[in-house]
């Protein structure tokens, strides 16, 4: 797959959408170290596919974390139920653990994010007097 970083740096976020395969050809022309060996080309394609998959998983985890934080605030205000918060925290923990298990994120990063969620929920929902 092609690397669109050069074009994105120039501020053309939607360029790949409109130009499609033409952009691939341009990117190949600008890339000095494009592999020529078939297995190396495949590794580049697989690496790009994995990068996009990992990026989506990390984005999903950040979204779930934000959902936990907002639900904790809502529970503290009485606008949401504790059951909804517990379901969101459980879902976030599950996704974080799966990402750590698949190597998308380091196990210490996963533990830190889970601790951040748990600590925030504990401080917000049941503050100490």
Number of helices: 6
Find the CATH superfamily of the domain at 55-125: Ribosomal protein S20
Biggest sheet features: none
Calculate the terminal CA-CA distance, rounded to whole Å.
56 Å
Please give the radius of gyration in angstroms.
21 Å
The count of DSSP E runs of length 2 or more, i.e. the number of strands, is 0
Q: Which CATH C-level class of the domain at 55-125 is it? A: Mainly Alpha
Quick check: average pLDDT? 85
Percent of residues in helices: over 70%
Shape annotation? elongated
CATH topology of the domain at 55-125: Methane Monooxygenase Hydroxylase, Chain G, domain 1
CATH architecture of the domain at 55-125: Up-down Bundle
Strand content: under 5%
How would you describe this structure in keywords?
mainly alpha, elongated, Methane Monooxygenase Hydroxylase, Chain G, domain 1, 129 residues, 6 helices
Protein architecture, described:
With 129 residues, the chain is an all-alpha fold. The chain has a domain of 71 residues: Up-down Bundle (Methane Monooxygenase Hydroxylase, Chain G, domain 1), CATH 1.20.58. The chain is built from 6 helices and no strands. The longest helix has 40 residues. The termini are far apart. The model has no long low-confidence stretch (mean pLDDT 85).
Structure summary:
The protein is mainly α. It has helices at 5-9, 15-19, 21-30, 38-77, 82-102, 107-125. Helix 4 (38-77) packs antiparallel against helix 5 (82-102), helix 4 runs parallel beside helix 6 and helix 5 runs antiparallel to helix 6.
């Amino acid at each position: 797959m092609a690397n669109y970083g050069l074009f994105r740096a120039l501020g053309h976020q939607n360029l790949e959408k409109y130009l499609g395969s033409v952009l691939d050809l341009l990117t190949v022309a600008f890339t000095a170290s494009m592999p020529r060996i078939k297995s190396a080309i495949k590794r580049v394609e697989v690496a790009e596919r994995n990068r996009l998959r990992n990026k989506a998983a990390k984005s999903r985890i950040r979204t779930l974390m934000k959902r936990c934080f907002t639900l904790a605030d809502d529970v503290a205000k009485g606008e949401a139920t504790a059951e909804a918060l517990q379901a969101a925290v459980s879902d976030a923990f599950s996704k974080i653990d799966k990402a750590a298990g698949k190597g998308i994120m380091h196990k210490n990063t996963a533990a830190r994010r889970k601790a951040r969620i748990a600590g925030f929920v504990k401080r917000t929902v049941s503050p100490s007097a």
